[in-house]
Write a structure and sequence with these properties.
Histone, subunit A, mainly alpha, 95 residues, two-stranded antiparallel ribbon, 2 strands
């Protein structure tokens, strides 16, 4: 699927992006290169290949879930202009 300069101009208009003619031509070449690469990838036979969550089969390393900071609620609440029962009071914005 090859785009035309009119397609790029329409996309720019829809995205509310102002581009020059030179930028439009450069963007046209870049987008067509991207679509060409996608078409090549779609032609690859992936029958029998299981989907992978990670390209190298790795796992996410998670740290141990433990408390590392002390309770500083009183100190944090000291910055509040108004507070009640440990909660910040804010002006009503919806009537």
């Amino acid at each position: 699927m090859a785009l035309t300069e009119n397609d790029v101009a329409r996309i720019a208009h829809l995205a509310r992006i102002e581009i020059t003619d030179a930028d439009r031509r450069a963007m046209l070449a870049q987008l067509n290169d991207i679509f060409s690469m996608i078409e090549k990838m779609q032609r690859i036979d992936t029958t029998g290949v299981a989907p992978m969550a990670h390209p190298l089969g790795g796992r996410q390393r998670l740290r141990e879930d433990r408390v590392t900071e002390t309770d500083a609620r009183r100190q944090n609440m000291s910055n509040a202009p108004q507070a009640e029962d440990g909660l910040f009071l804010v002006p009503r914005v919806v009537e």
